[in-house]
Design a protein that fits this description.
CATH architecture of the largest domain: 2-Layer Sandwich
Strand order of the largest sheet: 15-12-14-13-17-18-16
Distance between the termini: 18 Å
CATH class of the largest domain: Alpha Beta
Strand content: 15-25%
Largest sheet: 7 strands, antiparallel
Bound molecules: flavin-adenine dinucleotide
CATH topology of the largest domain: Uridine Diphospho-n-acetylenolpyruvylglucosamine Reductase, domain 3
Shape: globular
Radius of gyration: 22 Å
Helix content: 25-40%
């Protein structure tokens, strides 16, 4: 596509102010890179980056881009772990970072927030209203509410306990690719039944619209009680999760695990003695302190039946802070100290053990790279298995990085097909375009393409993500 970059920059500056348009190479490169481990290529590099202030400015940019068929890629914080954050074609990147308005209406039971506000900042702002933000990514300090609602991730939370952010979204303000501004949903706390646009647009991964405002229910913050348990092996933790669902035991809000190797690394990083075996961390929630203590007592009783080495309620906040952050430290280790290829397997809960065993075999027997290590940690109560292929070096050719990505992706997707999962956390299309056909068939994918076409006839938004381009 022939683009007059000077003219484009000038036109965009008229819409959002010249201080909010960037077409210099260093900025463009920064927006081309995401967490995916392979190098930036020419087709990822944006023509320009714009930072509009509100829906009116977003509308102007989209109407302009649609008219000229210029692709637009929406950028929250760009922390997506499955490639959603990287433009797949030269595009205008629209950064939502300036849209950070927040109005809290306790008397109406909701708040309204701009998409660019970071999760951590929003959580702090809601705390004086005793409200819980139901989204808990490891990237909390930097991930935006717009990015999180766009992939509809509750992240660490167990779905059976708290559902997904979309269940709490009452309405949206969005800008369609044509530039039209749409209000959806309700200002009541009663959500509309039946066909309704909010449901299509939450979780639409920037393919159908750009979200410029989110109206979300204020959820009373629960009391919490925390449990740590040490097991001889990760498999014993999986058995506990399977028993929890089978016996209908009320699920914790969080149920995280660290496998044997990740536990050692995480605990050492936070200054705790290395655990024997694998670690499980559970957080129980309830509306009252007494209710919470009782729930934790009962859950501990249940956990002890699964024969852990040790299991106890942790009452010391500082100790819990360390135990909890060991999980993030394990993530820091694998992502920072080498090349890491992650996967998300969300099997039927009665197949957790089989799926884990097969995932481990896949990761330890890669054809595209030999000598990698296997790590696993994450939200096992959800249930989510994150199986990581870790190479303790960054010095690997781009071709091999791509080959490993594809091998891990295809083989773990096959596990999701085999065991009834679909990926429940990180978003779908950029990494799983092929998987959708394997799991649901070509008609399903065609339906998605038709929905996209109805919203975005010129396919300008996040072009390449639904197609599965790299
Ligand atoms: C260290 C680390 C830990 C993480 N932990 C977790 C975790 O525990 N659970 C989890 O689910 N994820 C996790 N992630 C992935 C990621 O942080 C989350 O998915 C996060 O919610 C994405 O937010 P973002 O602002 O970075 O979105 P981006 O990556 O910028 O965007 C994600 C997608 O949403 C679209 N988008 C963004 N904003 C809008 C908007 N306003 N309107 C329309 N579309 C939009 C983008 O085009 C893209 O397709 C982690 C990432 C890192 C680096």
């Amino acid at each position: 596509m022939n683009i007059d970059l000077k003219q484009l920059t000038k036109d965009l500056a008229e819409m959002v102010g010249k201080e909010n348009v960037f077409s210099d190479r260093p900025t463009a490169l920064a927006y081309a890179k995401d967490t995916m481990p392979w190098d930036v290529e020419d087709h990822h590099i944006p023509y320009a980056v714009v930072r509009p202030a509100d829906s009116r400015e977003v509308s102007a940019v989209l109407a302009y881009a649609s008219g000229r068929k210029i692709p637009v890629h929406t950028h929250g914080s760009g922390t997506s772990l499955v490639g959603l954050g990287r433009p797949k074609t030269n595009a205008i990147v629209l950064d939502t970072g300036r849209m950070q308005t927040l109005e809290i209406f306790p008397e109406r039971g909701y708040f309204e927030v701009g998409p660019g506000m970071h999760i951590g900042k929003l959580r702090k702002a809601l705390a004086p209203h005793n409200a819980l933000l139901p989204i808990f990514p490891g990237s909390e300090p930097v991930a935006t509410i717009g990015g999180s609602v766009s992939v509809n991730t509750s992240a660490h939370a167990v779905d059976a306990s708290l559902c997904k952010p979309g269940d709490y979204v009452l309405g949206l303000e969005v800008v369609l690719p044509t530039g039209e501004i749409l209000q959806t949903g309700t200002e009541s706390t009663r959500k509309p039944a039946g066909i309704e646009a909010t449901k299509f647009l939450v979780g639409s991964e920037g393919l159908l619209c750009i979200i410029t405002k989110i109206r979300m229910r204020l959820i009373p913050r629960p009391h919490m009680a925390n449990i740590v348990a040490y097991y001889r092996s990760t498999e014993d933790i999986l058995d506990t999760v399977m028993a929890m669902y089978k016996q209908g035991v009320p699920t914790p809000l969080f149920f995280e695990y660290l496998d044997e190797k990740a536990g050692k690394i995480g605990f050492e990083a936070v200054g705790l003695s290395p655990p024997t075996g694998a670690v499980a961390m559970m957080s129980m929630h309830s509306a009252t302190e007494i209710g919470c203590q009782e729930k934790a007592r009962l859950f501990l009783e249940f956990v002890k039946k699964s024969n852990p080495i040790e299991a106890r309620i942790v009452t010391n906040d500082a100790e819990w802070g360390k135990i909890w952050s060991s999980r993030a430290e394990a993530g820091n280790y694998v992502y920072r100290l080498g090349s890491t290829f992650g996967s998300e397997i969300t099997p039927r809960v009665d197949k957790l053990r089989d799926a884990f065993r097969e995932a481990k075999e896949i990761i330890l027997n890669l054809e595209s790279f030999q000598g990698n290590e296997f790590y696993s940690f994450g939200h096992i109560g959800a249930p989510t298995i994150h199986a990581y292929a870790f190479m303790p070096t960054k010095d690997i050719s781009n071709e091999v990085k791509k080959a490993v990505t594809m091998e891990v992706r295809e083989k773990t997707e096959a596990l999701n097909v085999k065991y009834g999962g679909c990926g429940g956390e990180w978003g779908l299309t950029a990494q799983r375009a092929g998987f959708l056909t394997k799991k649901y068939g070509s008609t399903y994918v065609e339906v998605l393409v038709r929905i996209k076409k109805a919203f975005d006839p010129e396919n300008i938004l996040n072009r390449g993500n639904l197609e599965g381009w790299m």
